[in-house]
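New to this. Explain the following:
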Amino acid sequence: MTSWKIDLKVDQNLIPLIEEILYGLDPEEFPTLSDFEISGGGTARLLEAFFTQKPDLPMLRQRLLAILPDFDLSKADLGLSVVAERDWVSESQKLLKPVDAQPFFIYGSHDADKIPDNRISLLVEAGQAFGTGQHETTHGCLLAIGELSQELKGGNIPKTALDLGCGSGLLALAMSRIWPITIVASDIDPIAVQTTIQNAEANQIAIVTHGAGKPGLAALTSDGFQDTDLGGAGPYDVIVANILAKPLQEMAPDITANLSMDGSLILSGLLGTQEAAVCAAYANEGMELVRRYVRGEWHSLMLRQKQ
């Protein structure tokens, strides 16, 4: 999709009247308007109007002169330009730096030359789903997964793992890099699931069917464990849930019911002030806090069944 922009220089006292003229160009669509100070321009302002349909520039000129006969079009720099549709979230994320969360290194293609030799690298481009590793919650989960991988070395590696509310799938990708098992990545948002699949393919991680018992990533669009695909693939030896404090509390019975007896649970998306309430919900299900990862105001927690 494209949009169109009209810009013109006007005296600030005329802006309200000219805005009314712009609004009247198309009775079915109102433009988005903004004005900016012009350096050294005195009382002149730059007025911008954005339209989703091409506006009638000759009509605008006629109405300006009809309503403001003294309006000097030559000084207004009146112009019309096409503005290509852009994903501004993705554009801004391209400016983000790589994330070093030992043992993982998360980078965009523009930073491919910065990959350290002693890290597990994951390529995650800016996209429409949450999770480039920049946020403290994702960073904390990566640290927790890294430490868990050291604890579960050798014959103790998990048989099944789940990234619940996967977003971009980054945490599922990280687990896929360290454990040669099926990693299930689940999200209620189909865009997140598609983004997860794309990120797996970009990192040469196999897309597999859940329940097939093959190493790789199985991506599911699912609204919780009531979904037979998600619930039927458990119990999971590792569950990572980077969502928010309230849904973590509400889902405590379902999450713990789908965690194996000796399994490890990593929770994130909660502030330090919310930790006690989240831990209490899981204590009611027989879980206890093993370790916390503090990144700014955000806490990531590792829990296991009480011994």
In short: The longest strand covers residues 259-271. The domain at 90-305 is CATH 3.40.50.150 (Rossmann fold). The chain has a mean pLDDT of 87.
